[in-house]
Amino acid sequence: MLFHGPGLAVSNHLYERLQYSVKDFAPVVLTTMLPNVMMVPNSSEAKSLHEFLALARARKSMTFGSPGTGTTQHLSGELLKQMAKFEFTHVPYRGSPQAMTDVIAGRVDSVFANSGAAVESIRAGQVRGLAVTSAKRFPPLAELPSIAEVVPGYDVSTWFALFAPAKTPPAVIRKINADTMKVLGENAVKQRLEQLGAVVAPSTSDELASLLATELDKWGRVIKEANIKLE
Predict the structure, then answer these.
(1) What is the pLDDT averaged over residues 206-227?
(2) At what angle do helices 170-184 and 205-226 cross, to 10 degrees?
(3) Residue 214: its pLDDT value, please?
(4) Structural domain boundaries, residue 100
(5) What's the domain count of the chain?
(6) Based on the domain organization, do 75 and 139 belong to the same domain?
(7) Is the distance from CB of 109 to CB of 63 less than 8 angstroms?
């Protein structure tokens, strides 16, 4: 079994040569989804995403940090740049802790981080949350709007799912799907995942296949326009 996320779709466009293809895997079941969160230093003039975009256009350019090139946090910023049409310079770090340290200190104008790290930093008053990247508001940070409320159509969620080898018998896939769905329905499992900043989002194998196809198309367009390549 393979437990993977958006990287399965993103890598297909980031690298010129891969030793595998998404066609090598059979979608089994989606397990969880979680947004990224856009945050700014407490010293920032921007108190909302509206104000941030206005400030960015007035200054002609703003910066955003991420855990690294090609991550969903990086691509969250690139998609916002393309859809809202403003200059947004990416500053890649070697992980979330370094990116968070610099946004807290005000060395970058903003940062995109996964919801788990974001909730902790916002609750501790270290940074100011502006918006979540998912199409709808995120319950643990319900006070924050979704970016889509300001930039219609924007939607980025990190997701995790189970995949099997492409030639796995359909009956086996159905069995694993049913067993996983049963476990994800248990209250203790839901509560623990929510504590980690994730929302349980079980699916059929066909629904996961559809999600993967959508992700392949979306990130292919974003990566091509941003001209992002990795060796």
Answers:
(1) 96
(2) 90
(3) 96
(4) 41-149
(5) 2
(6) yes
(7) yes
